[in-house]
Batch of 4 targets.
Target 1
Amino acid sequence: MASSRADADAVRALEHVPLALPEGLEISWIGVSGYRISYAGVALFVDPYVSRAPLRDVLLRRPLLPDPVMVDRYLDAGGAEVAGVLVGHTHFDHAVDAPAIARRHRCGAYGSASLRRLMALHGLAELAVEVEPYRRYELGPFVVSFTPSRHSRLILGRKVPMAGELCCEQLDGLRMGAYRCGQVWGIRIEVAGIALYHQGSADLIDDALRAEPVDLFLAGVAGRGVTPRYWERVLRRLDPRVVVATHYDDFFKPLGGPEGFTARVKLDELPDEIAAVSRDATVAALRRVDRLPAPSASAPRQPPA
């Protein structure tokens, strides 16, 4: 209980750190490692997961599929054209809702061979794009590229959970264990004169991550404690202006309810960890989409950052 209070206090403080985004650029955190990024009437979704299967469904080995009600409520594009869905790896908390967005907006879903397999199970093989390392994909005003990466070894610091390729023959077999990790990608996004880097799990392939500075590092923080010298290694290459903490909320708790935190995530220690490596990077967080104030009918919606 005390750790949850400390995490809540820490994240509330981080939410007040400004991101200083270019005019017109909006970044919304939709929970876990999920983001909606909008600019000039065009949106991208990254690792969207709002369906939030309860732990009971996982334990009972029920299929984990998009929840249409939650997708309608929290994956709205706000009238923007959706240029694509980007998926860093195919664990369920990153990939479940990608097919639902691709179907709704008839947009491409970009990621690994495992993502292509998932899309085919949903009857959407024609919308799947198996990406090539470092290739630059132009998606409206966004230029996107994918960097080979690694998932943190969360099992006793030695093993990646549900490693290997997504394996399933039919939709009703998509239980948690079927959502295997597949190839892991870090995702670089260039838009409005700035660069962002999204990493859904706290590990990397040192030689694969090019030394190219970014403005915002959307950093999954839950697994950082099992990755040796993680901040030293990744920040040396990315040199971000702002580290935006992500993937720290309890993804078994539904959106719209009380916020929970990943066990032992220690958000209060995050600023000191990063300051020990980088004097220049500030640390921030975004309010999750279900905690944003409803837009006023008489006023334009304001960016959440």
Target 2
Amino acid sequence: MSLAADARDAVRKRPFLLAALRAGVVNYSAAAAYLDIGDEETVAAALRRFAADLPELEAASHDATVTMRSGIGLVGEDVDDPDGEAVLSVSGVELAPSGPLTAIIAEGEVDAKLLGVVLSRLAAESVVVDAAGVAGDALLVVVPRRQGATALQIVEDAVDVTYV
């Protein structure tokens, strides 16, 4: 494999660097030093060529409604006998109404890319995510009750403008 191919692979393993290349905000020499995969000048040149071939980041908005639902809990831990349907179920683990958590739900034009953006933004704000998922036209993140308002604002902002 060539050094240029190694550089592309190294960037793809670091989505933050791929996004920075697409945004055009990378110091190529610093990125080459960070990757530490070979001669820095050669890697920097490969990164420049790779960046030139990437599509630029574009702003996109989603037609979705965002709501907050408090009182969500983990069945078996927070909730003994759920009174309603599961809010989220993955491989036998269920979150149901009644508990110490808050669910933020976006319904409409949502997808896995938007969920990735939401999770990255929540992590950047140190919001703990207890569960997350997307299926059909619904996206859900579950956070501690005290972080619900912050999470709501972040999800609303991500729905309004996401860079893809």
Target 3
Amino acid sequence: MSAVRSEEAGWGEVVRLPGADVPPLPVEAPLDPAVVGARLHEEVARRRLVLEDVDPGLGAVVDAVERLAEGGKRLRAGFVLLGAAGASGGVAVPGALGIATAVELFHLAALVHDDVMDHADERRGVPTVHRAFGSRSADHGAAVGVLAGDLLLTWADDVLARSTEGLPTAPAVRTVWAQMRDQVLAGQYLDLRLQADLGSGTEVDVADVVRMLQFKSAKYTVEHPLRLGGTLAGAGPDLLDGYAALGLAVGEAFQLRDDVLDVFGDPRATGKAEAGDLREGKRTLLVALALERGTAAQRAVLARRLGDPALDAAGIAEVRDVLVATGARARVEDRITALVDDARRALAALRLDPRTRAALDDLAEGAAWRSR
């Protein structure tokens, strides 16, 4: 089935994904999470049939994936759709919904694998995939988590290919997609290396931490989704460069807000275990700045508390006190504010239709200043 597009249809247009065997879904608005959520549900349901045909027990793996997919803000999907809309003058673009779905599947894969590496217990208010299968042994649960993440990665690739089949911009989209994948995996490695350095007492430069968070999270949260949508719609280099500047600023602010919420936020709102980064000994910017300016006593607290899987409420409070007293939290908040200002300037420089501009502004602001 080929993709169809009606210039008069606008946001209410029905887009049929190339090769899809599910009913078409209306692209009613670029930020409607139900639209991408429905596509995710259809894709996972299709894959369930294949897996359960091998063995009915594989349905439990799909169940765990579906529970994880139910949550989330569909932030990356929204930026894909807005990136396409910005390049098309606000007209729905064939393939955009499929790419948005592929990005969400890729994100789920990254979460599943990240949770395995971080030994995380909870994600989006439900047990992490590897914990759901850990009753036999921790190794068994971790192995299932790796396999589930691998499945999601292959599904994401399949959806991307099917959604862009026959479209003239498909090769360019694939190039951006490949760059996104490689950079996320490279950023994940940098995160693991920094964590190991902290455990060994090795000094780490703040610039190393910033580079890690840019490649592990910032770029693939906003910049790459915007560029994927824009590239699909045939955006020129000026718009794509503008997307990159906007996306990097918003994406970094998003990750820094995530780091702050991990330590100071309400786990009932975030859907993650309290202070998970502290228990894992993550070298976030908060930690790096505190180590940079902390006294010997304050650095000793961080050395003793970070990476302790049994960290209790008293230990969390002690670390929080250090992060505040050293000015680390204030400096991160100041950086978020500066990044949002950079993003506003980048957005103002983009030539966009009013509706897309307003939606992009709302999504960017929400990413940086969210409370969960």
Target 4
Amino acid sequence: MTDPRDTRRGEEGGFALLLVLWMLGFLALLVSQTLSTGRAALRLGDAALERARLETMADAAITTELFSVATGVSGAGGVWKVSGDEKNLVQVRSIIERNKINPNAVSVTLMQALLVASGTPPDKATVLANAIFAWKNPDLQEQAPSSQGREESRCVPLGAPFHTFDDLAVVPGMTRSLAQALAPHMSFAQMQPTSSLTRDPVVRAALVKAGLVIPGQAIQREDVEDEEALVVVDAKASGDGGAMLRHAEVVLLPDARPVPWRVMRWETSDIH
């Protein structure tokens, strides 16, 4: 005859074994999750470290290029200079940006001429040029187009300068395709008047149309001799972990010390 106490002991032993197995499974899951989280954290850390390394390489190249241009060692000719190897490759170039048109610092006439030179019909160019000017000057808002759609008419000018094409895109009448056509010929940071020596055919056509350049005037060589010249520097840094583009717009200040320039704009983007 079986002793009831032996049966209870067997049941208790089976329950204990089941509890131990359940705890082991839970611990295994916990360890697996911890290891997975740790690996993800390490990957994020490695990515952040690589990004910081690329940014440092690009910034060093930009600083070196700016000192070279500011001291006259090299010109800002827009030619890519390459250094490093496949694992630490850096490319840098600098360009004097006085060949473009700043919508914050031009007349309605020149803005209208640029729009026409970019392919905008003259009637629309006149209306849009007035709208851009009025957008920066709310007191002149009545010059802006009055035939815009309901959605656009709710936009209220703030009287602030344009800093990006996103700012310019909110002007009634400005379309994405038109902004893309204007992009190569406009600068939001350029402080000096557009140079009559520009080699940009669209900008030159606009200057001629606005009566600021004599048709057929010879184009001469440009040098960084003017005070407070705006220089744009791009640096590409790449390695095994990816690539990064750093874009800087600076105003050269030849007499300033210890750094002979003032940064106007920084941009960073990953290259895939």
